[in-house]
Amino acid sequence: MLSLALGGFTGVSAQAAERAPTEEDYFANVPVVLTASRLDQPLNEAPGAITVIDRHTIRLSGARTLVEVMRLVPGYLAGGWNGANPLASYHIPIDDYGTRNLVLIDGRSVYSTSYLGDTHRGMMDVMLEDIERIEVLRGANSAAYGANAMFGVINIITRHSADTVGGELSVSTGDNGIRDRRARIGVGDETASFRLSIGEQRDSGYLNAYDDRRLGQVNLRADFKPTLADDVMIAMGVSYLDGGEGYSATDQGNPFHTVHTRDTHWQGEWRRQLNERDELKVSANYMEDRLVDVAEVPGLPGVIMDYSGKGRRTNLEVQHKATLSSQVRAVVGAGHKEEKARSYPLYATHDWRSFRESRVFGTVEWRATPQWLINTGVFVGQHSRVGTYTVPRFMVNWMPSAEHTVRVGVTESIRAPNLSELDGDVRIYSPTGVLLAQEFGATGRVKPEELRSTEIGYVGRFPNQSLTLDARLYHERMDKIIKISRYDNPVTGLNTRDYVNLTGLTMVGLEYQLRWKPFSNTELWLNQSYAGLKWDDPRLDDRDERRPPTHATLIGVFQRLPGDWQLSVIHERQGGMTFRDKRDWMPFSHRTDVRLAYPFRIGTSKAEAAFTVQSVEGDRPFFLVRRNFELARKSFLTLRVEM
Length: 643
Hints:
Elements: H1 10-18, E1 32-33, E2 41-42, E3 49-54, H2 55-61, H3 66-70, E4 76-79, E5 87-90, E6 101-105, E7 108-109, E8 131-138, H4 142-145, E9 152-158, E10 166-174, E11 179-188, E12 192-203, E13 213-224, E14 230-245, E15 257-273, E16 279-292, E17 294-296, E18 304-306, E19 309-323, E20 328-342, H5 344-347, E21 353-369, E22 372-383, E23 387-401, E24 404-415, H6 419-423, E25 425-429, E26 435-441, E27 449-462, E28 467-488, E29 495-519, E30 522-535, H7 538-542, E31 551-560, E32 566-574, E33 589-602, E34 605-614, E35 620-621, E36 630-631, E37 634-642
Parallel strand pairs: 6-9
Antiparallel strand pairs: 1-2, 3-8, 4-5, 6-7, 8-9, 10-11, 10-37, 11-12, 12-13, 13-14, 14-15, 15-16, 16-19, 17-18, 19-20, 20-21, 21-22, 22-23, 23-24, 24-27, 25-26, 27-28, 28-29, 29-30, 30-31, 31-32, 32-33, 33-34, 34-37, 35-36
């Protein structure tokens, strides 16, 4: 059902070393994963802590959004400054826009170019029903993916279109304005297949907030197999979001208004199997994000608050996996991307603001002995605005037996400044064109953030108890953190704000995930994380700025009942925390979600009816506590029919 299932390690390891992995390998008892090093590896041999969630688990969770699914991963928290903009990230109080967390959909990065480098909008580009599995690497991984993989990688793999031939319809309805609907149609066979998915979600967001959400999605995927050695995938799609924004009708900084966004993408990928173990892959993708965010400032007739803009990203990459000997495997690659944005409100110019980055990367895996596996990796990027950076990884996996693995290593990561941090220039004018204020005036002197992560990991299997355990103990040192500082701009003569490398911090933590299957129809999960954070600047510690919970626990029970009924209960507990500062301190909280589902048939079609209640205990304070924002208790009914 989930990542650390209950099989032996060594059998999968031998298969992966001798031939290219098949689809069955990815769902074996110890699944093969791709995210840690770009090499196909059994989970226990990966140079990092990885959680794998498959499509069956996603359905059992009762989640409506990808953010809700990410609650199942240790160390990840769900947030969002309002209900129209849900976000999940590792160390989320330090990363409440997801700028330090890489999100990939079939290898395509989805962070926004036009605004703050945020990932929450890109996470809405995929429908949960189209996902095959999600691989989540918990921790730094710039050595494999570059400048945005500082805190973790969420790698979303969608279903092959040949596996979704036929049709599917689903609808959900419930309180808090929940109205979801989706349709899918697939045609073809193993040589050529196509899938079209269309969906829409609506809900009312948080309580006491102006954040109603309407999300629409259209996605197309096509897969071709022109020869036995070649595979081609083409995908394209568009998603649009209409979301409420603002604190009150009279708030001059953020009055009530509706924000409109639209993301468009296309991507292509060609794989050639060179022999049983080696592969060449070429991929290209393009993404455009548009934002319309306009509001009249209350009390100032004719004065407009405008954060609208659009961004574009073009990316090309070539990658080669090679077996150098019976003990050594490697992957090498190179790529180039261009990012640009245009927004007069954000940059005070009608010209495009941009940067380019060329990159080379490589990983070498050396099986020194049957018990010792050494993994080294390096990523070198040439960034047109901040220069060249190099980030390495060194990890050692010791496998004293087939059931146990101990992992020790060091990884370095960076996050390059986004275009807003480099070039942001936000000005407010009167109706007659007089400059009233300058909200931001970035000088472009900001440098990349840096992170050095040291970790000890353990992956264990206890077959007699039908139990698995994955634990990660880490120490992370983060320097040159980008924050906001005020200064007097000599050009405009106004006091404004700039992005600067202001301070550093240290994080230490322990997290683990336990999976136990005491009976054939019962599975239990226990995820726990403990974290501590210390800012270098004692003033930030005094203000409790961006303070994660010191502890978090998730308990899941998945029980198949008589008559094929399925019961899921997920209970989550979090210590006190804040997303911004102590004015919005959230006390200890807990939440229980319950889902009861019944599968049946309508003629020859499979169907399922499910009733889900989220936050059974009731409403609870969330995010902007001083504004009385609350997560609502929600219940909804879902009907799904597969034809």
